Amino acid sequence: MNRNRILIAGLAAGVFWIIVDFAGHGVILGNDYRELGRQGVINAEPAIPFLPLLILANLVIGIATAWTYAAVRPRLGAGPKTALMLGLVIFLILIPPNLSQFAWFKVTDAIKWVSVLIAAIHAFGGTLIAGWLYQE
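Given the sequence above, the corresponding C-alpha cells read:
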C-alpha cells in the first residue's frame, strides 16, 4: 500500500466530510438545531470543544476510508465500483448511530432524513474521492 497516497486520499475524503457536515448540519439543519436548543431538547451550546473534535474525527475517518479502499483494492479491483461497494459498507455502519439518535431524542423529521442523506453522501462521496485519488 502507498502510505503517502493513503494520506492524501484520506485527507481529501475527510475534508469532503467536513464540507458535507457544515452544509448539512450547519446550513440546512441549523435552524432546526437552534430551535431544539431553545426548547431544551439538546444543548444550546456544545458541552465539549466540538468543532476541533469534529474536524479531527472527520479527517481520521477519511484516512481510515482511504486505507480500507487501499486494502480491498487488490481483491476487488481498482475503480468506482469498488469505491461504491465500500461506500455501501460504510453507509450501513453509519445507520445504527442515526437510528439510535432518532429513537431516543426528540428531533424533527428534517433532522432524521437529512442526517441519513448526509450519511449516504459521506459514505459514497468519501469513498469515491479516496478511490479516485489513491494509486499504488
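The mean pLDDT is 92. Try to locate this feature in the C-alpha cell string yourself.
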